[in-house]
Amino acid sequence: MSNLAAPLERLIRELSKLPSIGRKTAQRLAFHLLGAPASDAQALAEAILELRSKIRFCRECFNLSEGELCPICTDGRRDRTVLCVIEEPSNLVGFERTGAYRGVYHVLGGALSPLKDIGPEEIRVRELLERLGAGSFGEVILATNPDVEGEATAVYLARLIKPLGIRTTRLAQGLPAGGDLEFTDDLTLTRALEGRRSY
Asked: What pLDDT sits at residue 197?
């Protein structure tokens, strides 16, 4: 049983439900909020409530959006012949940060995982095929995570897309810049060898 006041203990419990936040970090955050000006705590609470009430999925790509369409889908400068398929809206942040990708996205909402009972019906495969059938895409980039579920999802989608005659690519995988070969896992090193290019 905790010897902390009930409201403080409740906040610690709630904060520790967040990803990568253990009890110690939650406790530190709770005490910080307790010592912060009331206006800061109020602003945080309002931001969380606003997030929950105003954010929804874009009806076209399923990215997070405040309106019917997300800013990427309404941007007329995007290349609408290239579609990048990602697992979650959070994956989009990295692509956009680089500024190297100017196409549009399709967010699956997860990856295939038979062990977790996640099949094609639980992610947005049907919506992807509908978009591909209705659009004029010249390339689909399968940018699912390089783990077992992501690989299985990419292989499954590639088989579905092949009959549509749309060029399908997979993100290159290999050694990270600044990486050390001694500490590189076998799968990454194998992919780096397979994906090598001429100088």
From this structure: 66
